[in-house]
């Protein structure tokens, strides 16, 4: 990668910053021997500060335009609000991956698949000729992020060797927050935030299952799912852990193909 590239530093900042927050949370849990870790408010404040600054760096180097799948050209210039929007995307995706990391290998392969998809997206967005042909936004210099995506793929495959059931090592908040935040930052840098929602749809569903469960339970006292996040629901209805993991991998692959299809359907 070109280390003078602001997109590289913005994404590495999020990766390292979110990884540090996750590490502090994991360390606190181990040291105090309970599951509390850092408070939710502290985590979110730190995550939004890091994500907001990274988004500001990205906006300074490109634009604050909003793009939508299936629509050619920018839809809206969000101006300064893009920093809030970008920070939300990064924080939301970091925590969505964190919630998905509940079974051996469950989060690892979908992260690898999403990184492969954004490897292609970042390369195409960074190439003026391909971007013009496909009708997608061209962001000069963002092609360097394809190297970061490939690094995530390589690290993920090496980790999966030891994380495959039964896992010898665990991702923890350190890994899941870092990887989720990195994918969110890459999506913001390439202006493909909504494509990330499709490509990383599994993570979105996992996070929504928790939100829905908490929202409904607080108001009615009833549970929508037997247990949230939703992968535990399928365990409770009789699916084995291996079945849940492999079927979720298949869903992630299909969603990645669906997300990539939006590059041409404009």
Task: Describe the structure concisely for a colleague.
Helices cover 70% and strands 2% of the residues. With 266 residues, it is an all-alpha fold.
Mind explaining what this structure looks like?
The chain has 266 residues and is mainly α. It contains 11 helices and 2 strands. The protein has a two-stranded antiparallel ribbon with strand order 1-2. Helix 1 packs antiparallel against helix 2 and helix 3 crosses helix 9. It starts with 5 loop residues before the first helix and ends in a 5-residue tail after the last helix. 43% of the residues are buried.
List the helices and strands and how they pair.
Elements: H1 6-32, H2 40-61, E1 65-66, E2 76-77, H3 81-100, H4 108-126, H5 128-134, H6 145-163, H7 172-189, H8 193-199, H9 201-220, H10 230-236, H11 241-261
Antiparallel strand pairs: 1-2
Helix pairs in contact: 1-2, 1-7, 2-3, 2-7, 3-7, 3-9, 4-6, 4-7, 4-11, 7-8, 8-9, 8-11
Top keywords for this entry?
two-stranded antiparallel ribbon; 2% strand; 2 strands; mainly alpha
- Topology, number of strands: 2
Strand content: under 5%
CA gyration radius, whole angstroms: 18 Å
Major beta sheet, strand line-up: 1-2
Into how many domains do the coordinates divide? 1
Number of helices: 11
What best-fitting shape do the alpha-carbon axes yield?
A: globular
Helix/strand/pairing category: mainly alpha
Helix content bin? over 70%
Reading the helices and strands in chain order gives: HHEEHHHHHHHHH
Distance between the termini: 30 Å
Largest sheet entry:
2 strands, antiparallel
Q: List unreliable stretches of 5+ residues.
A: none
Rounded mean pLDDT score = 94
């Amino acid at each position: 990668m070109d280390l003078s590239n602001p997109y590289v530093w913005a994404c590495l900042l999020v990766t390292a910053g979110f990884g540090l927050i996750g590490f502090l949370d994991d360390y606190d849990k181990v040291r105090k021997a309970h599951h509390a870790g850092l408070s939710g408010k502290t985590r979110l404040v730190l995550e939004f500060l890091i994500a907001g600054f990274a988004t500001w760096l990205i906006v300074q180097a490109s634009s604050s335009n909003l793009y939508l799948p299936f629509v050619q050209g920018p839809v809206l210039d969000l101006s300064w609000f893009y920093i809030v929007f970008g920070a939300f995307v990064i924080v939301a995706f970091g925590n969505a991956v964190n919630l998905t990391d509940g079974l051996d290998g469950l989060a690892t392969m979908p992260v690898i698949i999403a990184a492969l998809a954004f490897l292609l997206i970042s390369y195409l967005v960074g190439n003026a000729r391909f971007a013009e042909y496909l009708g997608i936004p061209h962001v000069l210099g963002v092609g360097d992020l394809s190297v970061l995506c490939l690094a995530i793929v390589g690290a993920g495959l090496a980790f999966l060797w030891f994380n495959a059931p039964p896992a010898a090592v665990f991702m923890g908040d350190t890994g899941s927050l870092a990887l989720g935040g990195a994918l969110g930052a890459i999506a913001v840098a390439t202006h493909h935030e909504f494509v990330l929602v499709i490509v990383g749809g599994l993570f979105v569903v996992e996070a929504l299952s928790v939100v829905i469960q908490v929202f409904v339970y607080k108001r009615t006292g009833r549970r929508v799912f037997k247990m949230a996040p939703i992968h535990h629901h399928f365990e409770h209805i009789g699916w084995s852990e291996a079945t849940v993991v492999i079927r979720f991998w298949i869903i992630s692959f299909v969603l990645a193909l669906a997300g990539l299809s939006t590059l041409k359907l404009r």
